[in-house]
Amino acid sequence: MNFLYKTKGDLVLWMVVILLSCVGILAVYSSTGTIAFTMYEGNTEAKMLKHFAIVILGIFFIYVCHLIDFRIYSRLSLFLVILAAPLLLYTLIWGVDINDAKRWINLPIINQTFQTSDLAKLALIMFVARQLSRVQGDIKDFKKAFLPILLWVVGICSLIAPANLSTAAVLFATSLILMFIGRISIKYILMVLLAGLGALSILVLLAFAFPKVISRFDTWKHRIEIYMENDEGGSYQNQQAKIAIASGGLIGKGPGNSTQRNFLPHPYSDFIFAIIIEEYGLIGGFILISLYLLFLFRCIRIVIKSPRAFGALLAAGLAFSLVIQAFINMGVAVNVFPVTGLPMPLVSMGGTSILFHSISFGIILSVSRSVEDKPEEQEMQTVSESEGGSENMIIQPA
User: Fold this and answer.
1) Judging by beta carbons within 10 Å of its beta carbon (0-12, 13-18, 19+), is residue 221 exposed, middle or buried?
2) Residues 220-256 pLDDT 10s
3) I want to staple 277 with a disulfide (CB 3.0 to 4.6 A). Which of 134, 160, 285, 367 is the partner?
């Protein structure tokens, strides 16, 4: 009862978190059936129990993070973003190489892999929100507001991109959305967009001209070529995903009755949306999409009601990051996007991603808790203003 008493924040967001976690447990249990027979001698519960344990740990992280005053994350963000940069560099050089991508490092004590880009993504969003909130008085100034933030965004995204281009692209897009919400001049954002498109075009040309220069170039080239071959049905992965979606129909085959899990590569992560539709039909897919849209709507409500710039920007950045990633994962399953490897937050299997997504949900709930506690918040305003400077300014229209 004490646990329930201390649980605060938006109750609808809590409901979305629990429902997404339940969907993930059911979908992972079903989609890991083939792995159970090839790697665990038919023990179908092994992967599910591990995923269940990570989900429970993730919910614990959400609970702890939502109890922390969100302003503490402002002070923590600078330390985390400074820590993330050398970790990303270390990963690029000495990281664990899986499928020609160095995205993980080994944690020696617990002997588990850790994806450093998940930490960097969270750290950068927190840092951008912090910097934008602190320079609201000079927000239209190129040198004081825009340039210092842009250098960090470009630096972190550049370190992520060689091994995980899709994550870098989502993080870069989220940072630009945050800059827009934070009232950075539109002309600066458009300049960055044009420069980004130019850099991406050069990268694609290099991928086709010199595919062996960087190992990932060949992977990117292959994915682009497969994605463009719509006349032939796309890649084997896309074909199997389409079969799963088509066979699901309106109401699906029922929980645990997927057949395409035996043919789809990574049905528990990259293509989990296809498995969900196969088993729960278009109705199940619609409910899942609605949950993420409801989550985004409630986060926008928190942003509007938040009395402080940092809280509003923090909630907005994390919400857009999670929702964009979810819809890209869904888009891959229906062949709207090339295969990216981005997991669906709280639904796809994956240790590091679930824990960091849980932290993101917890931080958003921390901001929503502060919105509910406005009287107490106002009593503490004098103290926080002396510590946070312009972080306490409410964003006004330009």
Assistant:
1) middle
2) 666 666 666 654 555 678 888 889 999 999 998 998 8
3) 285
